[in-house]
Amino acid sequence: MKYSQRIQELPPDERPYEKCLHSGPEKLTDSELLAVVLRSGTHGSSSVQLADEVLHLGQNEQGLLGIYHLSMEDLMQIRGIGQVKAVQIKCIGELSKRIATREAGKLLDFHSPDTIAAYYMERMRHEEQEQMICTMLNTKNQFLGDEVISRGTVNSSLVSPRDLILAAFRHRAVYMILVHNHPSGNPEPSKDDLLFTKRVWEAGALVDIPLLDHIVIGDQQYFSFRQEGLLS
């Protein structure tokens, strides 16, 4: 089906809104889902055609995943996408990320690197710069809070063990877990990661706030220092 037609000219069961009512949102294509949110197109282009342009704008990833990487300025380059529609699209990306994080949070178990990685995956895997997060736990391994300690460059995260210990003190933590991302998508730790983790483990031991794990987030994969027997 060509979407150069106006939506009103399409058969009712092929219009995204009506199609959703009739068959459910799961039957809509990515372009149709986005078109329902955009609601209207522009002169000469239907909302579906406009949505299709958005989905092909991503440089790193096309489709819905690419939306998260698009800036307001990127979106507003498309004829028919003004500030309001750009905000709507950006909110879709943020909403999807938060839903995924909330769902992962239901299964979160700080004894399990799998569930920790799943919890932080959507929050961190799309980031274009490295981030270091310190997660703080109480005596029962229950979540006290987390704190972004550093936002680094594409290739490094500038942080010292002192910053992590101070964050743990602020939260009155008994244990801590480090989580950071690799924008390359490959979670294999670098030599710097290995040395830094050792320094944090030693600093935590000195103040009696043990480092339970350091998890490196890649793209749909992770590396756990605890699982690999590298914390000792």
Automatic annotation (TrEMBL):
Record Pfam families: RadC, UPF0758_N
UniProt-listed InterPro entries: MPN, RadC_JAB, UPF0758, UPF0758_CS, UPF0758_N
Keyword Hydrolase: yes
A GO MF label: metal ion binding
PROSITE patterns in the record: MPN, UPF0758
Coiled coil ranges: none
GO BP annotation list: proteolysis
Annotated MPN domain residues: 109-231
Keyword line: Hydrolase, Metal-binding, Metalloprotease, Protease, Zinc
Family named by the database record: Belongs to the UPF0758 family.
Protein name (Swiss-Prot/TrEMBL): JAB domain-containing protein
Lineage: Bacteria, Bacillati, Bacillota, Clostridia, Lachnospirales
